[in-house]
Design goal:
9 helices; about 400 residues; alpha+beta; Aminopeptidase; eight-stranded mixed β-sheet; six-stranded antiparallel β-sheet
Length: about 400
């Protein structure tokens, strides 16, 4: 009898534990396997070529698998992804220097089936990042070679500007300093123990306030989307009548780095478990998405707040907004139409590139639609969109979003 009672109590405890820790799944038409997969870690080292030319991947965000000499002036940078299958967007990042001034040519090579995507970005000393001049690039079919002048000073060569976890933390902590209505929290830790931060932004009460969710850096190299995200967040945190009205009505949950492990590991796309986090918005097998979703749902339930809009900032070959075709019956069926019209009006020489399609794979924009009847948008910025142009786009998209939402 005593054993039966203990068994019943134990069963109840286990049931309550799993009930409290379970997260509502969202069904999608096409299921993606997001179980953890093995990754190949880089061998962090300095590649010394005859003690004359040096290459290094010994920094956060680096990606270089091998570096070797072909002839007196031609060198090969070989880059492998963290695992496969993976998208064909080869990311690389390394440092170069030489014992004496020397002009070299660097050929980029990848495993079979992969090709070069990004125009190299360079940085020397305290200079800002800049794209390599096209006159110093030789490209034909799958062959990509760049010409560089080296010296004892380090030259950073990267597919995109390097923005590490530490850089990101410094940015958002500086941004929210002295803003007492922005509450910095943690939703948990990644596999490698890195923090998953969220900026909980509201004024007054949280009760019954509709929630807007902002996500970025699911895919590590996609920094142009992150640059737009930075300007977007900066704009909604300005002190003016527009933002004051907005925060009397809405609450924002901003996640400034969804995949910190992948960022610092220099991954092409995946997290430390070898999984694309933007395919895990159904089963939540990865800790990053599970903890973010759990936090959003907990806050929504606790304060009786609807999730009304989700923007997920990414990068691709061109500026584009991926939207859901389903709009009728959603929380704000006219939001996208009104928002896009305002962007074309307020941004000089700007034409919205919208690609609508209902999410079949478990991505974030589909999670917002199917799970919450909310507007979900994947907000993409082109790899080579001018950085000053990105700032303008980020600023105006934030301002016009607030103007449209303030009318509801």
């Amino acid at each position: 009898m005593k054993f039966q009672f203990k068994y019943i109590v134990f069963s109840i405890v286990i049931f309550l534990f799993f009930k409290c820790n379970s997260v509502k799944r969202v069904p999608f038409e096409n299921i993606v396997d997001t179980n953890s997969k093995k990754i190949t870690l880089q061998d962090k080292k300095v590649f010394s070529i005859e003690k004359e030319v040096f290459a290094s991947n010994k920094f956060n965000g680096a990606r270089l698998s091998d570096f070797f000499k072909e002839n007196d002036s031609l060198f090969t940078a070989f880059v492998e992804p963290e695992n496969t299958p993976i998208n064909n967007s080869a990311y690389y990042s390394f440092k170069l220097w030489s014992s004496q001034p020397k002009t070299i040519y660097v050929k980029f090579t990848y495993p079979k089936g992969f090709k070069h995507r990004y125009v190299p970005k360079l940085k020397r000393n305290s200079e800002n990042w800049k794209s390599l001049d096209s006159s110093l690039i030789y490209k034909r079919d799958s062959l990509f070679i760049m010409k560089l002048d080296l010296s004892k000073d380090t030259t950073w060569v990267s597919a995109q500007e390097v923005v590490t976890v530490k850089d990101t933390e410094k940015w958002y902590k500086t941004l929210i300093r002295s803003k007492n209505y922005v509450h910095l929290k943690s939703v948990g830790k990644t596999k490698l123990g890195r923090n998953l931060p969220v900026l909980d932004i509201f004024k007054g009460t949280k009760e019954n306030k509709p929630i807007v969710v902002l996500l970025t850096r699911q895919h590590p190299p996609e920094v142009t989307g992150f640059f737009a995200y930075q300007e977007f967040l900066k704009s909604i945190l300005k002190e003016n009548n527009l933002t004051e009205t907005f925060f009397t009505k809405y609450r924002v949950l901003a996640f400034p780095i969804v995949n910190p492990d992948g960022v610092d590991l220099g991954h092409w796309r995946h997290n430390a478990n070898g999984v694309d986090t933007n395919r895990d918005w159904s089963q939540y097998r990865q800790s990053e998405i599970k903890q973010i979703v759990r936090f959003i749902l907990k806050e929504s339930k606790k304060f009786k707040s609807k999730i009304v809009l989700g923007l997920d900032f990414h990068s691709t070959y061109e500026d584009v907004f991926y939207t859901n075709k389903i709009k009728e019956g959603t929380v704000f069926p006219d939001f996208i139409k009104s928002w896009f019209a305002a962007l074309e009006k307020e941004i000089p020489n700007y034409k919205v590139n919208e690609k609508p399609g209902n999410s079949k794979k478990p991505v974030s924009k589909g999670w917002f639609l199917y799970g919450h009847n909310a507007v979900g948008i994947t907000y993409e910025i082109g790899d080579e969109t001018p950085r000053e142009r990105i700032k303008l786009i980020g600023k105006v998209t934030a301002e016009e979003m607030m103007k449209v939402l303030n009318k509801y």
